[in-house]
Amino acid sequence: MIDVRQGAWVGALVAAALAAVLLIAQLPAASASPASPATARFASLAADVTEADGHHYAATDDTGRTMDAAQIVQHADGTYLAVYHTMLADGRFHSAVATSTDLAHWQRRHDFGPGSSQPALAADDRGGYVLAYEKDPDNHIAVRGYADLAALLTGRAADAFDAPRTLSACAEGTPAITAAHGDTVELTGHYRADCDTDRQLVATLTDFTTWHAAAAPRVDRAVEAYGNSGNIGDRAPLDLAGRRMVLIEGQRWRDDFGSWATYAYDPVTGRADRLALRTHGGSTAFANPSATLITDPDGHPALLVSLFVPGEGAAPGEKGQLVYWREL
Known about the structure:
14% of the residues lie in helices and 46% in strands. By secondary structure, it is mainly beta. The longest helix has 23 residues, at 4-26.
C-alpha cells in the first residue's frame, strides 16, 4: 500500500515533470515561417557547410595563431582582411589583423596589443577603416580610426576613443560596427546586465569624442524566445535580398559553451530564425557569427560566413574558427 503522503509527493513530481515537458514543447524550434526574405535567403545559402564552394576549419595565420572570432571584409583591390583574437602565453587575448588572397593562407600584419579581443572592422566613407574591440582591464569598447589600409596594417591610428561603461558596472564589449559615415560611427555590442548575463546594446560615437549607448531589449527578446537564458553576445549586420538582417549568437545556458547557437534576426519584425547549421562532422555549437558579401578567390560573387566552433560542441577536426563561402 502506498502512503498517502508518498502518493502526494509522487503526484507532485509527475505534475512538475509534465509541466516541464509542456514548456519545452512550447519553445520555438527552427522557424517554420522565416522572419524575413533576408533571413530565409541566408539560411538557404549558409545553413549547410557541406554545400559550400569553399571552406576551412580551425583557421590560423602564418605564425600559427588561431584566428578566433574572425571577422572578414574585402578591400577594394580584392585583398581579404581578417580581424581576430588569440589567447597567447601571457594569458591575455591579443587582437590582430591579417591579409589573404585566397581565404586559406593568412599573413598576420599587426598585433593590437594585450587585452584586446572580439575585434570588428568596417570601411568608412573616407577611404579609411574603423576598428572596434573589447579592451581590458575594466572591459569596455575601444574604437580606433585609420586613414587608409596601410595605416591599419601597421597599427597607426589617427583617432582613438575608449568608451565609458554606462549600462553595466562590470563589462561592455563584443562590438560590431553597423555604419561609419562622416564623423559618426554606429555600433552594437553587449553589456553585462546586473553584472550577471550579457545583453545587447546600441551605441553612437560622434567625432571620436562623444559616446551614447542604450540597451536593445527587442533584440534580446527575439533570442530569448528560443529558450536562451544564458548570454546573448556577438552579432554582425548583413544586407541580403534587399534587406538588413543581423546574425547573433545566443546561449541556452550560461557557462555552457556547448549550448551556443546562431540566429538570424530581422530588425523590422523583431523576430529571429534559429539556424540549423550542418558541418561535415556534425558540430553542434556555433558562436561569434559574421558574414559579408565578397568576390571569392575564383572571381564569383559569394556570401562568406565566419563562425567559431567551441570545443564543447565540435566534431573532430572542426574546433576553432570556421570560414566558408557560397557563390551567389
